[in-house]
């Protein structure tokens, strides 16, 4: 029986599309039966009228029969819905202007929200495209409870944790890096990941082509170098050629073999970045010396994940890792004391495994800002629909007087709102997709940035939820109010609608105040992000980034010896300095922000490191004598390096102010000595103190830092820094020409201005992205608030036209009328400002970690934004109020 009923229901549903044909067919059949009975009655001697009446009686009434047929053959609920949809479409087509405004307003709100949610979804919510991704956990190393973040594990620590936690978790890891990849005489600088042998097997990945790194390789220094290409890089660099498998290439000047291509859907474990290639750790770190990556516990570069065994929870894994951490701390107190591992959901440690992840809060703040934009759009739509409901109250009253049930009328108006919300939502999704593609086109110097994640089911569900919320929020109240008015009162009022001070005016006034409050909150948050960006950009970097060009080179890729490398750089500096626009040039193993070396243990002469403790690590750089002049970093005390600081002379160093204060407080460090090897030396004499700077990123706190002369600390890979009197971009071709003139096979790893470097991930990029997003939403909020205020005041002035005419006829001046309307608008704006300030203060409490150089309660931002919003909203009040005061009193009295 249930199957028969279900079949009948589907047949009736399908019959809706042939309803007219079936009714016409049935009507013709009934008419033929009726005519047969009429003919029989005529032959029986009845007249025409009697024959028809008796025939109708016998058939039970033709119209009743037809109605019963409709009930049996149709689905009344669906028929009514289709009627409502057709009527709603006609009403929307009839009011094209209102429809266009509502659709555009909703499209802006939904588009902004879907774009932001799509970004957050791609960065935080989507799991890794691997089998059983819920089993993947991030392993974040901490020191005394503080996250070390991207510093990660040393290789010995990684091996010990992997071995001692294997019963409950398979630990695997990677070390990020950049390598020179040479194929077919063309060299690319790639963002790569050096992976452990079990990296791909633990993730459960299969190659798109060839094979991946195998579990029994990757961790033996000296084994043959291999490369697994990222799918996107394989497509871009080799055009998807399957013949690359087995191809011989060079990685940092050393021979390597391409063995496979990673699967298309896997772009690396770092959300937002797409790696170009994957190397075994043995390929990325070929050095097997006692102080190398493989043996030292101070080289923290491995970022680790773990696949939990089936049935193991995060809490159980955390207990096991705590036990291992305590065991290693007792075994290696100098390096592991206070070190622990936090086991957490992999998604919560994005974009890199970092326990104190501010990115989650960053995402939450922008989702709240997006929700505020949507709320502002909803209030605008609600005001528009409220005004339409007031206009249509007479229509609803007439329908009710003719027998229309209130529920039926509410459903009809709500159907119109749903339909227009769906149109706006569809336009919003298209806008969001375009904005997502726009974000996906953003490039980042030095990193393979990927912000275009596309839309999955979560984004569409989110957009649908936003549309339904809009329909309910903006449509239900106007529908209830339009159908809830007293019929007699509405019909008695004729064409007149709301009076001033009516409930509908109060509701629209409350919505207007809410718009002002939401807009103020958006603008204050945007203002704080912009002020933070200004603070970062104006901060003292310790060097002058203007008119500076950086060129990274490595002659060892062409098998240069140490002597040949030194001569190459000496000749190149001389050539570059001879160029007309060049003011100075220097060489260094790294430059601030973009290329930063690791830390070096420092032993102070006369201060032995206590047993069980390790020497403090300090960042450093190898530079030539012209470095400080080229970067314009002041030497505050002592001297800079000179040509006499040669390999055969005494070893020297220059420290920065923070290192001087940290190691020698209230002392003059000039002449003091340190060692980079042990308490016993050999020692290096400090000959100068340089101005503090920013070394790893533009927001770091002052860090100890020291410089060594390149002549005493040889490195083959160096950065040539050129300061010019003209835009440095104009020098690029000349510099490339001079390099190739020295060696036609020279590999230029990278060439960019310091300004471009500062726009990278460690520079201003995140601040500029945050400020741009916040400013865009703040502008949207301001625009929606101004339109909303204008609409409310304009509509109120229109509805009060007759009242204003009476006031002017009784002697009120136009200025008094203007003051009356402005006063009411100003009161609502003031209320909105008050609530907006409270809302902004509450929201910005959560932003303190995202702001640099500006307080979340920055009075300048609050006052300037409030003043701007006040001016815009009062202007939006003044325009319709001024138009209202110019109405002729006689025209106003005849209004409606």
Protein model, in words:
The chain is α+β, with helices and mostly antiparallel strands. It is 51% helix and 15% strand. It is built from 28 helices and 23 strands. Strands 14, 15, 16, 17, 18, 19, 20 and 21 form an eight-stranded mixed beta sheet that branches. A six-stranded mixed barrel has the order 3-4-9-6-8-7. Strand 19 and strand 20 (683-690) form a beta hairpin. The two termini are 62 Å apart. Residues 146-150 have low confidence and may be disordered.
What keyword list fits this structure?
896 residues; alpha+beta; eight-stranded mixed β-sheet; six-stranded mixed beta barrel; 28 helices; elongated
Give a topology summary.
Elements: H1 2-15, H2 19-43, H3 48-59, H4 62-73, H5 76-94, H6 96-125, E1 136-143, E2 146-147, H7 155-164, E3 169-183, E4 186-195, H8 199-203, E5 209-210, E6 226-229, H9 231-238, E7 248-251, E8 254-261, E9 277-280, H10 281-284, E10 303-308, H11 314-331, H12 333-336, E11 339-345, H13 359-391, H14 393-401, H15 406-440, H16 457-484, H17 487-493, H18 503-538, E12 548-553, H19 562-577, E13 582-588, E14 599-601, E15 603-604, E16 617-623, H20 627-631, E17 635-638, E18 652-656, H21 657-663, E19 673-675, E20 683-690, E21 705-709, E22 718-724, H22 732-742, E23 748-753, H23 754-758, H24 765-799, H25 801-809, H26 814-844, H27 859-885, H28 889-893
Parallel strand pairs: 4-9, 6-8, 16-21, 18-20
Antiparallel strand pairs: 1-2, 1-10, 1-11, 3-4, 3-7, 3-10, 5-8, 6-9, 7-8, 12-22, 12-23, 13-22, 14-16, 15-19, 17-20, 18-21, 19-20
Helix pairs in contact: 2-3, 5-15, 6-13, 6-15, 6-16, 7-11, 13-16, 13-18, 13-24, 14-17, 15-16, 18-24, 18-26, 18-27, 19-22, 24-27, 26-27
């Amino acid at each position: 029986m249930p199957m028969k009923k279900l079949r009948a229901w589907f047949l009736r549903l399908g019959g809706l599309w042939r309803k007219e044909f079936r009714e016409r067919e049935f009507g013709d059949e009934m008419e033929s039966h009726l005519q047969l009975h009429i003919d029989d009655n005529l032959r029986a001697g009845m007249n025409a009228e009697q024959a028809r009446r008796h025939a109708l009686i016998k058939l039970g009434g033709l119209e009743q029969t037809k109605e019963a047929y409709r009930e049996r053959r149709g689905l009344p609920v669906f028929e009514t819905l289709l009627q409502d949809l057709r009527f709603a479409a006609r009403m929307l087509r009839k009011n094209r202007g209102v429809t266009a405004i509502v659709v555009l307003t909703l499209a802006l709100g939904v588009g902004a929200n879907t774009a932001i949610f799509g970004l957050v979804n791609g960065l935080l919510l989507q799991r890794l495209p691997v089998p059983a991704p819920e089993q993947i956990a991030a392993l974040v190393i901490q020191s005394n409870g503080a996250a070390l973040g991207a510093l990660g594990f040393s290789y010995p620590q990684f091996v010990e944790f992997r071995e001692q936690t294997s019963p409950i978790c398979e630990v695997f890891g990677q070390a990020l890096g950049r390598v020179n990849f040479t194929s077919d005489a063309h060299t690319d600088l790639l963002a790569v990941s050096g992976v452990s042998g079990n990296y791909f097997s633990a993730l459960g990945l299969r190659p798109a082509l060839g094979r991946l790194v195998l579990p029994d390789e990757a961790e033996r220094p000296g084994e043959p170098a291999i490369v697994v290409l990222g799918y996107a890089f394989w497509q871009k660099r080799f055009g998807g050629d399957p013949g690359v498998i087995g191809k011989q290439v060079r990685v940092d000047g050393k021979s390597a073999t391409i063995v496979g291509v990673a699967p298309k859907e896997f772009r690396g474990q770092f959300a937002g970045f797409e790696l170009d290639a994957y190397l075994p750790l043995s390929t990325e770190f070929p050095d097997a010396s006692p102080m190398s990556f493989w043996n030292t516990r101070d080289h923290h570069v491995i970022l680790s994940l773990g696949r939990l065994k089936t049935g193991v929870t995060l809490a159980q894994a955390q207990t096991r890792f705590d036990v291992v951490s305590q065991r290693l701390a007792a075994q290696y107190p100098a390096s592991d004391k206070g070190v622990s591992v936090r086991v957490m959901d992999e998604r919560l440690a994005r974009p890199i495994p970092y326990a104190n992840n501010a990115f989650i809060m960053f995402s939450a703040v922008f989702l709240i800002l997006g929700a505020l934009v949507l709320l502002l759009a909803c209030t605008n739509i609600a005001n528009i629909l409220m005004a339409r409901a007031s206009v249509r109250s007479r229509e609803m009253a007439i329908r009710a007087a003719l027998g229309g049930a209130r529920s039926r009328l509410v459903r009809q108006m709500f159907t119109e709102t749903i339909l227009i919300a769906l149109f706006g939502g569809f336009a919003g999704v298209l806008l969001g997709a375009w904005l997502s593609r726009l974000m996906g086109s953003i490039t980042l110097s030095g990193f393979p940035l990927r912000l275009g994640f596309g839309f999955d089911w979560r984004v569409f569900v989110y957009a649908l939820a936003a549309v339904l919320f809009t329909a309910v929020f903006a449509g239900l109240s106007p529908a209830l109010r339009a159908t809830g008015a007293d019929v007699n009162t509405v019909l008695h009022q004729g064409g007149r609608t709301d009076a001033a001070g009516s409930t509908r005016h109060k509701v629209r006034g409350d919505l207007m105040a809410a718009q002002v409050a939401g807009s103020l909150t958006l603008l204050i948050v945007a203002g704080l992000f912009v002020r933070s960006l200004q603070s970062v950009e104006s901060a003292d970097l310790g060097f002058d980034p203007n008119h500076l060009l950086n060129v990274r080179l490595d002659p060892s890729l062409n098998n240069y010896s140490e002597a040949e490398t030194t001569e190459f750089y000496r000749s190149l500096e001389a050539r570059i300095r001879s160029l007309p626009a060049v003011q100075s040039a220097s060489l260094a193993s790294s430059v601030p922000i973009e290329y930063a070396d690791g830390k070096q243990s420092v032993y102070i002469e006369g201060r032995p490191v206590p047993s069980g403790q390790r020497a403090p690590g300090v960042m450093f750089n190898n530079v030539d004598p012209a470095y400080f002049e080229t970067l314009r970093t002041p030497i505050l005390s002592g001297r800079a390096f000179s040509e006499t600081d040669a390999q055969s002379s005494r070893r020297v160093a220059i420290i920065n102010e923070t290192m001087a204060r940290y190691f020698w407080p209230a002392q003059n460090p000039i002449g003091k000595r340190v060692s980079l090897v042990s308490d016993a030396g050999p020692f290096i004499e400090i000959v100068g103190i340089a101005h503090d700077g920013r070394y790893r990123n533009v927001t770091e706190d002052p860090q100890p830092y020291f410089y060594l002369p390149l002549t005493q600390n040889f490195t083959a890979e160096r950065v040539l820094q050129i300061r010019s009197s003209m835009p440095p971009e104009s020098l690029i071709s000349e510099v490339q020409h001079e390099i190739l003139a020295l060696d036609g096979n020279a590999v230029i790893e990278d060439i960019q201005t310091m300004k471009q470097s500062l726009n990278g991930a460690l520079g201003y990029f995140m601040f500029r992205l945050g400020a741009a997003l916040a400013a865009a939403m703040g502008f949207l909020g301001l625009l929606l608030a101004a339109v909303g205020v204008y609409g409310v005041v304009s509509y109120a002035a229109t509805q009060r036209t007759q009242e204003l005419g009476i006031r002017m006829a009784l002697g009120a001046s136009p200025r008094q009328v203007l003051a009356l309307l402005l006063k009411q608008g100003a009161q609502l704006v003031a209320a909105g400002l008050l609530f907006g300030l409270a809302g902004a203060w509450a929201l910005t409490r959560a932003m303190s970690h995202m702001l640099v150089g500006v307080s979340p309660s920055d009075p300048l931002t609050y006052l300037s934004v409030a003043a701007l919003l006040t001016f815009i909203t009062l202007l939006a009040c003044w325009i319709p109020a001024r138009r209202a005061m110019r109405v002729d009193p006689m025209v106003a009295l005849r209004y409606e």
